[in-house]
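We include this case.
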Amino acid sequence: MKQSKPKINLKNIKSFLEGNTKMLLASAGIQQEHLKEQVAYRMLICSDCMEEGFCKVCHCDLPGKLYVSESCNKGERFPDLMSKPEWDKYKDDNDIK
């Protein structure tokens, strides 16, 4: 699948900055454990996109897009990033180990 370029607008610029900043912090070891788990979960759920190197929904580059708080797929593949209590409940409800 060929990657089409995402639209350049304020929302996408904000997402790009957020995702890449959070990815940089994670690579420096500055990321909360529950957020690490959610990024890893997104990588697993989106293994098809990971192989392509971009999101098949929004066409943004990976892995930066995985760190953005808001899900680009309206929760169809994975939800927005959650607080620790929300993530713990989501893991329990969905039998995620």
User: Anything to note?
Assistant: The chain has a mean pLDDT of 92. The radius of gyration is 13 Å.
